[in-house]
Design goal:
about 15% strand; three-stranded antiparallel β-sheet; globular; Rossmann fold; about 375 residues; single chain; 2 domains
């Protein structure tokens, strides 16, 4: 244990020197096993201080100009893949928070063969209509895994492996159409999120997952994703969680969840907490609401040394939770299993909350539903 602490202190001391500030600051793996919780907390604090030192120039710019990382709104029309801007919903686009769940007349390719699309609403005596139960017409998951960071930002070991395994489970167990973006630059992130916003409809279910470097500012509690073209000198290529909220708002699906294995324990997951309920899940009632949820690892980056089976500790817990679900599982129950696994081994606390700024409706929840056999 003492040797581990000495190594961590030495790493931080080296980083504090001007000559070493530009070198990768990834600590070596733990020697002699994983230390106890108190020692882990000390190491986590030292790592945060080291990151603050590493990003000091970019952070100074953010303090002077909090909008330095903001993504501008796109001009009229849909953006091209090369444009780094946030797509603006057109007036003709459906509004996710007010439109009923779409009922398609044709079966989506993502639907299992046994699942039937109900007919249109049927009139009954007295002029009332019985609405068909809502269905999820398409499940789409977009996963970002960032390993290859340029010096002096240290490379990561687990994100691509994490998204590959999580994507496989989402596809095979839950029937998602899965897209994986490896080593995403800021333009890649923006383009992929704009594309989701342009092609999804209220009857869809969308999951976005990010694993990569990030930073949480101590004073403002604003979280940032740091793409692989991010810089320690300028935040211009960072992505703030306020912009992520805008992208989530533009996703027109009724069911939306963001899962971040990076610093995202700032404003979004605190907008409204979601607690575990002993009540049975009313699927139809939930699917007729706009639900936008965010789950965060509670840490600043995926950490492989404290992880399991080659995954970050958070990704390993998420994979375990997804493998053990029932036919219909609300996101808060997935989160509770993840949190329990993480906090017993590591001093970070995952977060889960409703994103009101992206249109979440009271009582909404994200549903992980296995297709009918």
């Amino acid at each position: 244990m003492k040797l581990t602490l000495h190594i961590a202190a030495l790493v931080f001391g080296l980083l504090a020197s001007p000559a070493m500030a530009q070198m990768p600051m990834r600590p070596p793996p733990f020697m002699g096993g994983v230390p106890g919780m108190a020692q882990m907390q000390s190491i986590v604090m030292q790592r945060h201080q080291a990151r603050t030192l590493l990003y000091r120039e970019a952070l100074e710019e953010l303090k002077k100009n909090p909008a330095a990382a903001d993504v501008k709104e796109c001009p009229a029309g849909d953006p091209t893949p090369e444009e780094v801007c946030i797509r603006v919903l057109k007036k003709a686009d459906p509004t996710p928070s007010t439109q009923p769940v779409a009922v398609s007349k044709q079966k989506s390719a993502a639907l299992p063969a046994a699942e039937k699309i109900p007919a249109a609403s049927v009139p009954v005596p007295g002029g009332e209509k019985i609405l068909p139960p809502p269905v999820v017409t398409r499940k789409l998951a977009v996963l970002f895994g960032n390993n290859a960071y340029p010096n002096p930002i240290p490379p990561l070991e687990t994100p691509i492996f994490d998204v590959q395994d999580i994507g496989r489970i989402l596809q095979e167990r839950f029937g998602y159409e899965v897209r994986i973006v490896r080593d995403a630059k800021k333009a890649d992130l923006v383009s992929a999120l704009n594309q989701i916003g342009s092609e999804t409809r209220p009857g869809d279910s969308v999951l976005v997952f990010y694993a990569g470097h990030g930073y949480l500012m101590d004073d403002t509690k604003m979280g940032y994703w740091i793409p692989v073209d991010g810089s320690v000198k300028s935040p211009a290529n960072w992505v703030s969680n306020s912009d992520i909220s805008k992208f989530m708002k533009n996703i027109q699906a009724k069911q939306v969840i963001l899962i971040s294995d990076s610093c995202f324990s700032g404003s979004l997951t605190r907008e409204e907490k979601v607690s575990v309920s002993s009540k049975s899940v009313d699927r139809d009632w939930i699917l007729n609401k706009r639900s936008v949820l965010a789950m965060s690892s509670g840490g600043e980056e995926p950490v492989s040394d404290e992880g399991k089976e080659g995954h970050s500790i958070f990704a390993w817990a998420l994979i375990s939770a997804l493998k053990s679900t029932g036919l219909l599982t609300p996101g808060v129950q997935i989160f509770q299993g993840v949190k329990n696994d993480v906090v017993k081994d590591y001093p970070q606390e995952p977060q889960y909350g409703a994103v009101l700024s992206a249109g979440h409706m009271e009582g909404g929840e994200y549903l992980f539903e296995m297709p009918a056999q």
